[in-house]
Design goal:
ten-stranded mixed beta sheet, 11 helices, 17 strands, 381 residues, 19% strand, three-stranded antiparallel beta sheet, AB_hydrolase_1, disordered N terminus
């Protein structure tokens, strides 16, 4: 099979090196001298932290990571794109990113939803890595979220720009994912990643869209949590608060559920320490103005064209949470089933799945069921 020399993204230049076995990795901006580092597989984990002021050939500082996370994680955090964790199975060589002589392991990307962070996927990713030790799992903080909020990304803050960030990160790391999983907002980001990459793809990729549709976001019924209203309410709060409990109480009194209130305050961090004692003040880790723009983009972004004309080699899986009723109009479900039939005839793939006994927070409501459904994407390696 002849090698293809160029691979382009519609909005950026990312050039991969194709190999004879039809596997490729994006060309990295990391200085090639890193590939000369001695290859090791220590029993402890290593964190490679890149300085924010790093040049084209940044220095690398290695530090121990908490052993309690298990013997399967390598964390590499280039600060100019997105902050991320790379969770690796026991059979993956940790040095692949720095040493291209090591075969590229199969990679899955896990994307969080609005007001979330990469930590939402931490426990689930470690479970996957334990069950599928040949795989590695890339968890990112999307722009304006988590630790990536400090990177001050240029606007517009949208589904498309969030997807482009992830594509650029994959280019930096020389990784080409076989699986991309996105929850809610992250589901549309996953679809946008496929939409922005030039076709045809060099090898098949499975995309999982968890409890989100390709088009219009349905309004919630009374008693449901409304993300737009939640963001607006959070913007009215001070940037620093003295108590997480006070924020939880305020959210519940305003009509949001206890579960959502408890989840939101995981985005509060203590501001500092004085004389060894923790300060009784907390600040938000996300950029609420940027998050607000991103959610508006999520409501407006329409990717039905991609779903109804799936590129060859792409398999798009929609997962509907059984108890997540308002997010799914009957017309959405009908169009997905029509796309299933059409894709099967044209060599692509679209499938609809239902996760029983779960609301919108699928990886928290029914992690065992979600694990079983996703698992077949990682088999055979």
């Amino acid at each position: 099979m002849s090698a293809v020399s160029n691979f382009s993204c519609r909005h950026c230049e990312i050039r991969p090196a194709f190999r004879s076995d039809n596997r490729f990795g994006f060309v990295s901006l990391i200085n090639q001298k890193h590939s000369k580092l001695k290859v090791m597989r220590p029993s402890l984990q290593l964190a490679l932290n890149h300085s924010r002021r790093a040049s084209i050939s940044p220095s690398i500082r290695m530090t121990m990571v908490d052993e309690r996370l298990a013997d399967m994680i390598v964390v590499v955090k280039p600060s100019d794109i997105l902050v991320y964790d790379l969770v690796q199975g026991a059979d993956v060589s940790w040095s692949h990113i720095l040493d291209k002589s090591v075969p590229e392991p199969p990679t899955a990307v896990l994307l969080h939803g609005i007001l979330g962070s990469r930590k939402n996927w931490g426990t689930f990713a470690r479970r996957l890595a334990k069950e599928f030790p040949k795989w590695q799992f890339l968890l990112v903080d999307l722009r304006c979220h988590g630790d990536s909020a400090s990177l001050k990304k240029r606007g517009p803050h949208s589904v498309a720009s969030a997807a482009l960030d992830v594509l650029k990160l994959l280019g930096r790391l020389k990784l080409t994912p076989r699986v991309v999983v996105g929850h809610s907002f992250g589901g549309k980001v996953a679809l946008s990643m496929v939409d922005q990459v030039a076709k045809p793809l060099a090898r098949p990729v499975r995309v999982w869209v968890l409890d989100a549709t390709p088009g219009k976001v349905q309004a919630g019924a009374d008693g449901d949590d409304h993300p737009a209203e939640l963001i607006s309410f959070l913007k009215m709060l001070p940037k620093e608060v003295s108590s997480k409990r006070d924020v939880v109480n305020a959210l519940v009194q305003h009509g949001f559920s206890q579960d959502v209130a408890q989840w939101v305050v995981t985005n509060l961090r203590q501001t500092g320490v004085v004389n060894g004692a923790s300060l009784s003040s907390f600040s938000w880790v996300f950029d609420l103005n940027g998050v607000s723009d991103m959610y508006q983009s999520y409501e407006e972004t329409n990717l039905w064209k991609l779903v109804e004309d799936v590129p060859r080699g792409v398999h798009i899986n929609f997962l509907k949470a059984e108890r997540s009723l308002h997010r799914w109009a009957l017309e959405d479900i009908r169009r997905i089933h029509v796309a299933e039939e059409q894709a099967a005839e044209e060599g692509g793939g679209v499938e609809m799945h239902v996760l029983e006994d779960a609301g919108h927070w699928v990886h928290a409501d029914n992690p065992d069921g979600l694990f079983r459904i996703l698992s077949f994407s990682f088999q055979g390696f």
